[in-house]
Design brief:
The chain is of the alpha+beta class. The chain is built from five helices and 13 strands. The strands form two sheets. Strands 1, 2, 3, 4, 5, 6, 7 and 8 form an eight-stranded antiparallel beta sheet that branches.
């Protein structure tokens, strides 16, 4: 157990709605823009499957049930090529297709109004423009414009984060963890505070320039910043805790923090470099 990091309680069978939102926010690290039920069929599948679906940033997260905190699938739609018109099927549902670089994704909503709303929000965040659809209601258009402004601000923060990392010196080896940045303690704090969606753990050089340090921003009752020294000794690395932990690599050091906090700590990596899980 890491000093100063509190273990989270076990999940209850049916967590309260606010608890679900907080847990999903922690897991995804992305702002929620739109949600609802969608039936989904990938180009390689024969049948539709219904999910509770969330649009967060430029990602679609699919949940097996409305009340579960952990998604079962996710899909990056940032490179959306195009979307077809929404058309009704024989059962009164509304379908449209997302054209992606790796195939097509068919989506089915309960009715045409819901389908057009889903398509509108998807186009808003991927194309950074509210679609000129005359069938959308004024209230829907207002919410899309609000989401557009939020997504623009999020992109600016991501770009600033990417620029900052590109301006730093290169990691000493190709095996350096992706969350390593050649920044000072104060710069690490600023990166974590300004870009929470990128993660909350940074590996950086220590003040003596001979060893390393871990800076974390942990959300408990209020945001808390902590720093841990990582000593380099031969081919091993020692984390300075109440009880020292010796590990064979810096990646193992990062993994130790993630594991000991049950995933509450996430390595700070910009969306550009984050590897997405396979979907469908």
């Amino acid at each position: 157990m890491l000093r100063g990091i509190r273990e989270q309680p076990e999940e209850t069978p049916q967590p309260a709605p606010r608890r679900i939102f907080q847990e999903r926010q922690r897991i995804t690290g992305l702002p929620l823009y739109f949600q609802g039920y969608l039936s989904v069929r990938h180009s390689r599948c024969q049948e539709f499957r219904e999910y509770w679906t969330e649009l967060r940033g430029t990602m679609l997260f699919f949940y097996d049930d409305k009340k579960v905190p952990t998604y079962s699938q996710k899909l990056d739609i940032s490179a959306l090529i195009s979307a077809t018109n929404v058309y009704p099927d024989e059962n009164g549902s509304a379908q449209f297709i997302l054209m992606l670089s790796n195939g097509e994704l068919e989506l089915k909503a309960n009715d045409c109004e819901c389908g057009k709303e889903w398509k509108g929000f998807i186009l808003t965040v991927t194309k950074l423009s509210v679609p000129p659809d005359e069938s959308l209601l004024p209230g829907q258009l207002t919410r899309m414009h609000e989401v557009l402004e939020k997504e623009k601000k999020r992109r600016i923060m991501l770009n600033n984060c990417s620029s900052a990392s590109l301006n730093r010196q290169s990691p000493p080896s190709s095996t350096m963890p992706a969350c390593f940045y050649a920044v000072s303690r104060q710069e690490a704090i600023e990166m974590l505070e300004k870009n929470p969606s990128c993660g909350n753990l940074i590996l950086r050089p220590s003040n003596d320039s001979k060893n390393y340090a871990i800076t974390i921003r942990h959300e408990l009752d209020a945001p808390r910043l902590k720093h841990y020294k990582v000593m380099s000794k031969g081919t091993s690395y020692i984390i300075e805790l109440e009880r020292q932990v010796t590990l064979p690599s810096l990646q193992d050091v990062v993994n130790h923090f993630v594991t000991q906090t049950r995933g509450n700590l996430k390595p700070f990596v910009t969306q550009k470099h984050a590897a997405e899980d396979p979907v469908f």
